[in-house]
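Morning, I've got a small favour to ask if you have a moment. You're getting the sequence in one-letter code plus the fold written as tokens. Thanks so much in advance, here it is:

===
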Amino acid sequence: MTLQAHDVELVGQVSSGSAPLEIATCAAARIVDVGGAGVGSGDLRLSSGELALLTSGNFTVRASSGGLIRVQGVSSGDWSGIAGPVLLDASGATGMVSFEAVSTWRALWARGGAGVNVSASISTVSGDLTLEGNADYLATAADPLHAIAITTGSLSLSAVGGALTLGALGQSGVIGVVSPTTWNASSALRVHAPVSVWSGSGAVSWNADADRDGVGALVLSSGSNVTVAGGSASLLSLSGADVDLLSSVGGVVAGACPIAVMPSTSGVPMQLGGSWTPSFYLSAGEVSLLQTSSWLLFGGSAASNVTVDGVSYAGGASPVQLWALHAGAGTSASVGSVTFSGSSSVFASTLDVRAVGSVLVAASVSAMNAQPTAGLPGVSIQADFGAFACLLVCWFVCLFVYLFCCVLVCWFVCLFVCVFVCLFVCLRACLLVCLFACLFVFFACLFAGLFVCVLVCWFVCLCTCLLVCLLVCLLVCFV
């Protein structure tokens, strides 16, 4: 069913059953306002109340021949009768879609021939969210707005129950971003156009597999790249069940902005370089695409194992951080570890390796531009740092307690012997002899008892403390 008019005023139900429904302008270059109170300046106004009167499968709002669609605010109650996705189609050569107020949809596809402007958060509750800012696939010097422009910081794009896609394969144009911003997708997050973080000062966070079910990769396609202008972001965070950097036009150039590449699901192993594995995998070529003058992190608290095989990195990051800090949830199977295996790896920067479990160096690894640490040039290794600290504390506590108990026992034994000897001597000698004898015996017993007891206790204490410390550490640190 198609309704085409200069404007529509709906006062009763409009139903196409399960079939598609479309509302379109009848002339070129018209403005369509969707959502809100319906009191805007648009030529065709479709208020939130009128949206609630619609029943259909898929629903399309079409601005013909270069029109403008403006979203004035849509909530989940506005489209309860629409069972399928909503298409906002302004795909003519000069057509645009502009999101001017917060909107929530079941599933949404927005197409603007000359661009999609986003100045408010957009979310879907059970389907995909797709924004195409160059829907006519034209690119000329006279038409520079073939883009998606996220013009305001502190907003989010969120596809709950579906995938988030920005741009389309083969399209031109740039996705302009103001930080801070967060993009979340329950499944895949796909970026098909170059991204420029050109303004702002906060974090840019892109999260595929936001529901942490282990399904959904963050994908930068072959025609995409990421550029962060100086000072416009404090962090670029890339997360997903996997991260695929397929860019052939520059990769990720973050300037002085740090980069974090992390698995979305706790306890997931990461593979850098080497042969492909069916988990979180970045090839050696993908690793080299990540360029920053700040730190570059692989792993974090969710990574159980980070394996490095034949990586040669010269992207400027300092340091490169390989962190496997997953605690293992009471078992040793997924306790974080870092392994250098297979072919040799070279990092033209400092290297910071940390693991809750072990660090295994089974292949040559080298790093530059740092003082030697842990026997390797430019490499800082911290393994079992939590367990080691706990072991050290337990050692001193047990040692102090044991020595204190031994000395206390010695004093009581000496006093008892001295009193007994003194009483025995007093019964058989005069008071003066008893006095000197008591003093002599008292100090003799005191020093002899202390010397013997401390000597014996020292050796016993060493053995006992080792056993006690190991037992305490096993129970406290690793359980």
